[in-house]
UniProtKB/TrEMBL annotation:
Organism taxonomic ancestry: Bacteria, Pseudomonadati, Bacteroidota, Flavobacteriia, Flavobacteriales
Gene giving rise to this polypeptide: ung
UniProt-listed SUPFAM superfamilies: Uracil-DNA glycosylase-like
Pfam families: UDG
Protein localization: Cytoplasm
Protein name per Swiss-Prot or TrEMBL: Uracil-DNA glycosylase
Protein purpose: Excises uracil residues from the DNA which can arise as a result of misincorporation of dUMP residues by DNA polymerase or due to deamination of cytosine.
UniProt-annotated catalytic positions: D65 (proton acceptor)
Similarity remark: Belongs to the uracil-DNA glycosylase (UDG) superfamily. UNG family.
Catalytically driven reaction(s): Hydrolyzes single-stranded DNA or mismatched double-stranded DNA and polynucleotides, releasing free uracil
Recorded superkingdom: Bacteria
Record-linked InterPro entries: UDG_fam1 (IPR002043), Ura-DNA_Glyclase_AS (IPR018085), Uracil-DNA_glycosylase-like (IPR005122), Uracil-DNA_glycosylase-like_sf (IPR036895)
Enzyme Commission (EC) number: 3.2.2.27
Length: 221
């Protein structure tokens, strides 16, 4: 089947697109988008891939579900459209960025500038019904994004994976730690962060240190 996705990913994932589960998944997603309000908008479902070509990928951040509030989800995990107020997890990400790298807290919650530099901002589930968290889980997206992680692990070397929280750590189980770098911490959600599992992880500076060691350009977070 023909999926509208950035060309380098299409070559890597075409085999996945042709599998029965993915065909069923796309049918489900189409019917959901036709019958009810879903996020992100259809043209942005594969935004994480469209902003970050496979050959330019250097860092992977794994999220769970798209935001399910109006106008929030833009197809990149933890990211919202410019002008939208920052959700709690994103606020804590930016606070850690401030203390880790001395960055000024940004006005925009749109993380596409990260993605354009080679950061794959991958949600495990790429779509959701409005106001219904987790409503598109268990329909095939997880199998698809597992395959994405597997392909990255097999076909690339020296990728920095940032696994935040228990869900992301489980999702990263297939990563070959012998050829990639895996940094883990608690989730940036208030529940985890306020217990001391997020702040101070210094993942942004650590990522850039690793990229420097591998003679790659750093990310301007």
């Amino acid at each position: 089947m023909d999926v509208k996705i950035e060309e380098s990913w299409k070559n890597i994932l075409q085999e996945e697109f042709d599998k029965d589960y993915f065909q069923n998944l796309i049918q489900f997603v189409r019917s959901e988008y036709q019958s009810t309000q879903c996020y992100p908008k259809g043209s942005h479902i594969f935004s994480a891939f469209d902003h970050c070509a496979f050959d330019k990928l250097k860092v992977v951040i794994i999220g769970q579900d798209p935001y399910h509030g109006p106008g929030q989800a833009n197809g990149l995990c933890f990211s919202v459209y410019d002008g939208i107020s920052h959700p709690p997890s994103l606020i804590n990400i930016f606070k850690e960025l401030e203390t880790d790298l001395g960055k000024t807290y940004p006005t925009s919650g749109d993380l596409s500038s990260w993605a354009d530099q080679g950061v794959l901002l991958l949600n495990a589930t790429l779509t959701v019904r409005a106001h219904q968290a987790g409503s598109h889980q268990g329909k095939g997206w997880e199998q698809f994004t597992d395959a994405v992680i597997q392909q990255i692990s097999e076909k690339k070397e020296g990728v920095v994976f940032l696994l935040w929280g228990g869900f992301a750590k489980k999702k990263g189980a297939k990563i070959n730690k012998g050829k990639h770098h895996v940094l883990t911490s608690g989730h940036p959600s208030p529940l985890s962060a306020n217990r001391g599992y997020w702040f101070g992880n210094k993942h942004f500076s650590k990522t850039n240190d690793l990229l420097t060691q591998m003679n790659q350009s750093t990310i301007d977070w």
